[in-house]
Amino acid sequence: MAAEEPGVPIPRLAERLTMRLWRLAFPLAxxxxxxxxxxxxxxxxxxxxxxAVVIDxxxxxxxxxxxxxxxxxxxxxxxxxxSAKDEDYPCGVEARAALQALVKTTPQVECLPRGPNxxxxxxxxxxxxxxxxxxxxxxxxxxxxxRPRTLYYEDDELxxxxxxxxxxxxxxxxxxxxxxxxxxxxPKNESPLGVF
Length: 196
Prior knowledge:
196 residues; single chain; alpha+beta; CATH 2.40.50.90
């Protein structure tokens, strides 16, 4: 059994160890299939690799498969937010553009499917080269950590919120609340995600 890192609860440590293992095994599996735009099985680890088409800030299509980025939630294309100057802006469009910019850095995106969510969308951890797409979006402030599912990106979200990057520059409605029909912004100086 692995020793607990100081200050890190066991469930969170298990997530970090799983992610580290995936980051070691995934590149090896990719080397075996470089250049193929199809789903491939390697060592009982199915993955998808190929050119990517961005659907919105948390969904993309790779090798004909629609995938939701695991561990994050991001605004839909029609979501609007308030800027630092308290002006409306199309944050969903900007978040999608951020993912498009990340995907353009490489001719191939690699994804490790993680299983379906409650809406039967296939979730996946995806990378463009060495860049974890979900982590990059959260770090830039264009997505939030999906806390009910994982704590992978919680620290990245805190850094983005502290630096007022992306969505955190002003006010926004949490993407899940937006999808549920909420249109009332939280008061200034209050997190759209509740108390931390």
